[in-house]
Amino acid sequence: MDISRTDQRILHLMAQGGWIELHRDHRRKIEKALCFSRDGWLYPGFDTELFRRLKRLKAISSKQGKPYRITERGLRLVRAELDNR
Asked: Which family does it belong to (predicted)?
């Protein structure tokens, strides 16, 4: 299955130890999604639409209320590259 270039970049970042944090409003609706690298840097091109697409592909998941991490399926979806720039 082919995935877009932006999906590929996020999955590479997460495969290297990154994570996704969600911020919700008072109605528990997702207000914003933030993607962090393993060093704690914020990735600027990430939004809730991209989060929903990765979740729909089952490339990311959250366990026990912790931040979202890449899944085994996500690791299979991401293509092996030396550098994703």
From this structure: Belongs to the UPF0386 family.
Read off the pLDDT of each residue in 12-21 and give the average, rounded to a whole number: 95
Q: Are strands 30-36 and 60-61 parallel, antiparallel or unpaired?
A: unpaired
Nearest alpha-carbon partner for 14 in 61, 52, 70, 60: 70
Phi (first) and psi of residue 35, to 5 degrees: -110, 130
- Using one digit for the tens of pLDDT, what is the confidence trace for 42-59? 999 899 999 999 999 999
Q: Would you call 34 helix, strand, or coil by DSSP?
A: strand
Distance CA 73, CA 60 (A): 8
